[in-house]
Each structure stands twice: as structure tokens, then as C-alpha cells.
């Protein structure tokens, strides 16, 4: 596609920016945490304390969000997000393979990174991955209809700025973690471009098909950003283990954080968790 070629030309023509390291705590095997769209590393405030006693935990703000750079000429494509993550990880000079954890959009970013750099990781953990295949490629009519509805909703959000910012502010005040979801005039451009170029035009299934390390997928049974049935194609991939956490939504609350922490170490936790989609 033309937009992909343009993005590649842009990447070739400039050095990828380094992202903000929001936290670097603890000692031991390295775990890198990558948050999602319209958020920041506060996403992981319930998870970091569980990992810090036994791991070095590095939290990174993605391109355009938190305290990371928001280049004026960025289109916030998957290639740009991954290039910025790669530049940041290289600057950290991590000498041993590490565990990479992504939440929401971050799960799509880390899946592409894992596919492109298989030797860098020991394990990949995806939390609440918003998996939306191309409707024309989805065989199940009911899943196809659900995914199409999600994509139409996202298009509506992108094209109605005042509505989206106002309602995002209302929702943000109701959430248990301050700053975990913010859409403002300041991050509007990164939000709409990341939404369109990375979530709506995603390649996560084909990316995961190229991943060679164990993949743990953790999601809440009440996650409104996961279309019912959409994770079945991911579950069928090799080396993927699914963890469904009951009574949890898209936010990494304490119960879900315990399951993610266990997945990081490859330890099974059964409290409120079902295997499979």
C-alpha cells in the first residue's frame, strides 16, 4: 500500500526517536512494559510491585503518549512505533534476552517487535490485545459482524473530535487509575493516527505467526475492547497460551495484574482464571 511505502521512506530518512523511560526498578531478569493508546506507563501501577522483587522492570511510554516525543511529522504507523521501541531498547544495552509485555495497542507493537527480533526475547505477554482481523478474511459471520461494528465505531471516534475528547474526559474521571486513559487536544494527533494505522489496519495475527518464543495472552472477561470470538484465531496459533480473567475489564486491575505477573514467569495461576477463549 502507498501509506506503507511512505512510512518506510520516512523511517529511512530519519533516526527513530528514543522513548521516555518512565520506570526502571528492581534487579534480576529484565521485563519491559509497553502501554497502550491514549495512556501512559501508569497502566502498570498494579503490576510493577508484583514484578519488582524478582525482576528488573522497565516501563516505557510509547511514541506520542506519556512523556515520550510526539514528532510533528509522524504518522504513528506500526513501523514508527516499533522503530522507536527498538531504538530505546538498543540504548538500554540489555545484554540478555528479556520478557516483553504489551497492553492494548502496546500488545500489537510488541508482537511486531517480537516477530522482527526473535533473538531478543524469552517470552511475549499480550494483555487485552484488541484483535480485529480484516472483515473480508473472517469466516465466522457473527465475528465478522462484531469486528465490523468495532471498526465503524473507531472511525466515528476519529472523525468526531469534540465528541471523543468530551466523552473520554467523562470516562477518565470514573476509572480507578488516574491518567490511565486520556484523549486531549495535545495527544489527538497521535491518538487518531495510531488508532487508524495500528489498530484498524493491524497485522497482529500475521506478526504472531512469526513469533518463535512462548506467547501468553491475558484478557478480562469484561474487556469491552475485545470483540467476542475475535481471539479464536490467536488461540489457534502455536506456542500461545490463553488466560481469561473473570470479572475484569480492559484495565490492569489487581486480579489481572497477578495473572500477568505469573505469565511473565511462566507460572500458572488459577484464581479467577480460565484457560482458553
Give structural notes:
The protein has 277 residues and is an alpha/beta fold. It has one domain (2-275): Rossmann fold, CATH 3.40.50.1820. Helices cover 39% and strands 16% of the residues. It contains ten helices and eight strands. The protein has helices at residues 2-13, 48-51, 78-92, 105-116, 141-158, 161-174, 188-200, 204-208, 232-235, 254-264; strands at residues 21-25, 30-34, 56-60, 98-103, 121-127, 215-220, 240-245, 273-275. Strands 1-3-2-4-5-6-7-8 form an eight-stranded mixed beta sheet. Residues 8-12 have low confidence and may be disordered.
Which terms would index this structure?
10 helices, about 40% helix, about 280 residues, Rossmann fold, 8-stranded mixed sheet, globular, single chain, alpha/beta
**Average of per-residue pLDDT values:** 92
CATH architecture term: 3-Layer(aba) Sandwich
Largest sheet: 8 strands, mixed
Structurally, how many domains make up the residues? 1
How many extended strands? 8
Distance between the termini: 33 Å
Q: Could you tell me the strand content as a percent range?
A: 15-25%
Low-confidence stretches: 8-12
Q: CATH class, please? A: Alpha Beta
State the strand order across the main sheet: 1-3-2-4-5-6-7-8
CATH superfamily: Alpha/Beta hydrolase fold, catalytic domain
CATH topology name, in short, is: Rossmann fold
Shape descriptor reads: globular
The level of helicity is 25-40%
**Radius of gyration from the alpha-carbon trace, in angstroms:** 17 Å
Structural class: alpha/beta
- The number of helical segments is 10
The sequence of SSEs as H and E is HEEHEHEHEHHHHEHEHE
Amino acid at each position: 500500500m502507498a501509506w506503507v511505502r511512505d512510512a518506510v521512506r520516512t523511517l529511512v530518512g530519519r533516526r527513530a526517536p528514543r522513548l521516555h523511560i518512565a520506570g526502571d526498578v528492581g534487579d534480576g531478569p529484565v521485563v519491559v512494559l509497553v502501554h497502550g493508546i491514549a495512556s501512559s506507563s501508569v497502566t502498570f501501577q498494579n503490576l510493577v510491585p508484583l514484578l519488582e522483587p524478582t525482576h528488573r522492570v522497565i516501563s516505557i511510554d510509547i511514541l506520542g503518549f506519556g512523556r515520550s516525543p510526539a514528532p510533528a511529522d509522524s504518522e504513528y504507523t506500526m513501523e514508527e512505533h516499533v522503530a522507536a521501541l527498538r531504538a530505546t531498547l538498543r540504548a538500554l544495552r540489555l545484554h540478555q534476552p528479556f520478557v516483553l509485555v504489551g497492553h492494548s495497542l502496546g500488545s500489537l507493537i510488541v508482537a511486531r517487535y517480537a516477530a522482527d527480533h526473535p533473538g531478543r526475547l524469552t517470552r511475549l505477554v499480550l494483555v487485552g490485545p484488541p484483535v480485529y482481523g480484516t472483515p473480508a478474511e473472517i469466516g465466522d459471520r457473527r465475528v465478522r459482524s462484531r469486528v465490523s461494528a468495532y471498526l465503524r465505531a473507531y472511525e466515528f471516534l476519529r472523525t468526531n473530535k469534540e465528541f471523543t475528547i468530551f466523552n473520554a474526559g467523562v470516562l477518565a474521571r470514573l476509572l480507578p487509575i488516574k491518567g490511565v486513559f486520556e484523549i486531549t487536544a495535545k495527544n489527538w494527533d497521535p491518538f487518531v493516527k495510531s488508532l487508524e494505522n495500528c489498530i484498524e489496519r493491524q497485522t497482529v495475527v500475521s506478526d504472531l505467526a512469526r513469533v518463535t518464543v512462548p506467547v501468553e495472552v491475558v484478557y478480562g472477561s469484561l474487556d469491552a475492547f475485545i470483540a467476542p470470538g475475535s481471539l479464536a484465531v490467536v488461540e489457534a496459533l502455536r506456542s500461545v497460551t490463553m488466560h481469561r480473567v473473570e470479572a475484569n475489564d480492559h484495565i490492569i486491575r489487581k486480579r489481572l495484574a497477578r495473572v500477568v505477573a505469573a505469565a511473565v514467569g511462566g507460572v500458572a495461576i488459577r484464581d479467577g482464571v480460565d484457560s482458553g477463549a
